[in-house]
Amino acid sequence: MKSSTLALLSSAGIASAALQVDLSSADSIKQAASQVAWDLLQYYKGNQSGATPGILPGPPPAGDYYWWQAGAMWGTLVDYWHYTGDTAYNKLSSDSMIFQAGAPQNSYMPPNWTASLGNDDQGFWGLSAMLAAEVGFPNPPPDQPQWLALAQAVFNTQAAPDRHDDTCNGGLRWQIPNYNVGYDYKNAISNGIFFNLGARLARYTGNQTYADIATKTWNWVTGVGLMDSAWNVYDGGHVQVNCTDIFKAQFSYNAAIFLQGAAFMYNFTNGSDVWKERTQGLVDRTVEVFFHNGPAVEVSCELQNSIQCKTDMLSFKGYLHRWMAQTTQVAPFTHEKIMATLQKSTAAAVKSCQGGPNGRQCGFRWTTGQFDGLLGAGQQMNALAALSSLLVDQAGIKPPLTNSTGGTSQGNPNAGQTATDVFHHPPPTTGDKAGASILTILILGGIMSSFVWMSTGLSEKGM
Ligand SMILES: *[C@@H]1O[C@H](CO)[C@@H](O)[C@H](O)[C@H]1NC(C)=O
Ligand SMILES: *[C@@H]1O[C@H](CO)[C@@H](O)[C@H](O)[C@H]1NC(C)=O
Ligand SMILES: *[C@@H]1O[C@H](CO)[C@@H](O)[C@H](O)[C@H]1NC(C)=O
Ligand SMILES: *[C@@H]1O[C@H](CO)[C@@H](O)[C@H](O)[C@H]1NC(C)=O
Ligand SMILES: *[C@@H]1O[C@H](CO)[C@@H](O)[C@H](O)[C@H]1NC(C)=O
Ligand SMILES: *[C@@H]1O[C@H](CO)[C@@H](O)[C@H](O)[C@H]1NC(C)=O
Ligand SMILES: *[C@@H]1O[C@H](CO)[C@@H](O)[C@H](O)[C@H]1NC(C)=O
User: Which family does it belong to (predicted)?
Assistant: First the structure.
């Protein structure tokens, strides 16, 4: 069905079912968020008989979603619980994050998903585990992997020498197995998550080593030009040319992962000038690039006349909102600017929620005040993130915990150090491999065409 037809149907037939919310009322936000969460979970089939627990339908071609996106969804639901107190999805989230941990090493590298296992894919699950520790999400039974140890396992496997080499002067590659398409690309999100986890582990545990590694990663990212002196964060570069071909598309999650990490470094250093300047620079530039007169816009693929965003990219706005909201807790000087921005963007997001069979599912484009006909788990996650993040200032919502301010998650500084070496696994089956290369072809194809637009679009606006 054409999207225009869908939009017409929704506005003609069941527009009265559109999501209703009064953003000045916490109760109203909670009510709306619970509806958006329920609609999100309709995309989850992992609890049906015969299905694999913990994942969204996929990876392509078996379904729309790569493994990492479910990891991001459980994190979105951990935040949802933290901000609203609604425990409805806690057991599902907890069971899923444990089932996919990749026993017995429990470093989020389950053999099933090796064919599309990037450092960023593994990292997204690690971020959700880190968040669970920080918000005091109920601890798993003692014989199961624990949140902090899971985050440490992801960090440790990424800090290990076998993930690093001298091409481009250092940094993490995108893919982990050397036979995956994309192994030759060093990108912002992989290094951004590694930096972000280091900053948060430093603050949670008080262990300076994590902060030192995070700082080293930051220095590499700025040195190689993935972040420039005007705080633009670019996507990646190829090792064959020593990363001199920096691909300058800007995605909101790349900016936000560094912003949130910088805020944690600011907090860990008790408010150092250097991390304050970096946090402020990233706040200002992120708002400038991604929030156009209010609503969040995924500028590199959300074009004026067409949406070029792939399934992955359709979910980035949610991380943008969540990571900016948490930034305000650890770097309170950013609070006024960030919350004013998130308020306006959320008001616009909600207006897109007038689609789907029940007339209240959310679309991707937030700038039109209408539903754009694009339904999906990412779009629901975005709206859920936007709504629940607005509750960050409610009484009783604690800033991220540490192990000396109420955090109870059990860690293990050596977690993940016996992880299976996926480099030595036999190459995946043809079906799996096709999935991974389709991802790359789609991403590179989509980005390349939209990047042409972006350069022109930005120069037209005089940016
Ligand atoms: C799966 O979980 C969803 C969300 O909690 C729920 O709505 C659905 O009924 C569950 N399905 C089964 C088969 O348990
Ligand atoms: C891996 O795939 C097998 C076969 O589909 C499935 O039974 C198992 O639950 C999967 N494990 C994980 C962690 O996804
Ligand atoms: C917090 O973790 C660090 C590093 O693991 C440890 O040295 C310290 O004793 C812990 N503090 C508390 C209060 O548990
Ligand atoms: C601090 O973290 C490093 C890096 O993971 C680890 O090797 C070391 O054992 C940790 N120290 C403590 C006291 O936990
Ligand atoms: C690769 O780039 C780095 C800067 O990112 C530079 O320090 C290094 O000398 C370059 N190496 C080669 C072989 O050109
Ligand atoms: C931050 O302040 C705490 C408490 O005064 C102190 O223990 C810690 O060493 C300081 N950290 C840094 C990086 O200055
Ligand atoms: C660090 O975060 C805490 C909240 O956990 C906050 O109270 C404190 O003001 C922050 N520190 C700085 C220097 O902003």
Answer: Belongs to the glycosyl hydrolase 76 family.
Domain that holds residue 325: 1-41+250-393
Number of domains forming the structure of the chain: 1
282-283-288-292 Cα dihedral, nearest 10 degrees: 130
pLDDT of residue 27: 98
* Tokens found for residue 230: 């005007």
Ligand 6 atom closest to Cα of residue 269: 13
Round to whole Å and give the CA distance between 222 and 231: 9
Looking only at the bridges linking them, the beta strands covering 185-187 and 236-238 are antiparallel
For the stretch 27-51, pLDDT in tens is 999 999 999 999 999 999 999 999 9
The finding on whether 271 has its CB within 6 A of some atom of ligand 7 is yes
Count Cβ atoms within 10 A of the Cβ of residue 164 and give its class: 0-12 exposed, 13-18 middle, 19 or more buried: middle
DSSP classification of residue 237: E
CATH number at residue 365: 1.50.10.20
In a domain, 432, yes or no: no
Expressed in angstroms and rounded, the spacing between residue 263 Cα and the centre of ligand 7 is 10
Instruction: Write out the DSSP string of 155-221.
Output: HHHHHSGGGB-SGGGS-B-SBSSTTSTTTTEEEHHHHHHHHHHHHHHHHHH--HHHHHHHHHHHHHH
Ligand 2 pocket member 52 (CB < 6 A): yes
Residues with CB under 6 A from ligand 5: 168-169, 223-224, 242
Residue 96 CB less than 6 A away from ligand 2: no
Residue 208 lies in a domain: no
Per DSSP, the three-state class of 42 is: coil
Residue 112: both structure tokens together: 């099933």
Give tens-digit pLDDT for 71-125.
999 999 999 999 999 999 999 999 999 999 999 999 999 999 999 899 999 999 9
Q: How far is the CA of 329 from the centre of ligand 7 (A)?
A: 7
pLDDT value at position 293?
A: 81
pLDDT at residue number 418: 76
Q: How far apart are CA 459 and CA 463, in angstroms?
A: 6
Query: Is residue 11 one of the residues assigned to a domain?
Result: yes
Distance CA 68, CA 85 (A): 25
Pocket of ligand 3 (CB under 6 A): 205-207, 403-404, 411, 413
Is 449 a domain residue? no
